[in-house]
C-alpha cells in the first residue's frame, strides 16, 4: 500500500487520500478485466471487417445484376 492510500473494509480495495477514489488491489481481477476489454475490442474489429466485406459483396452482386 502506498503512503497516500488508506485501507477500507474490503481487503482488495484502498482509498486514495488525494482523490478519494476507491482503487482495486486485486491484480488477478485487474488482469481479467483488461483481457475482457481486449477481447471485446478484437470482436468489434472483427465485426467491423465483416460488415465491410459484406458491403463489398453486396456492391459486387448489385453490379453483376445490373450487367444482365
Strand-helix topology:
Layout: E1 5-7, E2 13-16, E3 22-24, H1 27-67
Antiparallel strand pairs: 1-2, 2-3
Provide the gyration radius in Å: 24 Å
Query: What letter string, H or E per element, gives the SSE order?
Result: EEEH
Unreliable sequence segments? none
Count the E strands: 3
Strand order of the largest sheet: 1-2-3
The percentage helix is 55-70%
**Number of separate domains:** 1
**Beta-strand percentage range:** 5-15%
Structural class: alpha+beta
Descriptive notes:
- With 68 residues, the chain is of the alpha+beta class.
- The chain has one domain (5-67).
- Helices cover 60% and strands 15% of the residues.
- It has one helix at residues 27-67; strands at 5-7, 13-16, 22-24.
- The chain has a 3-stranded antiparallel beta sheet with strand order 1-2-3.
- Strand 1 and strand 2 form a beta hairpin.
Characteristic terms for this protein:
68 residues, alpha+beta, three-stranded antiparallel β-sheet, 1 helix, 15% strand, rod-shaped
Quick take:
The protein has 68 residues and is of the alpha+beta class.
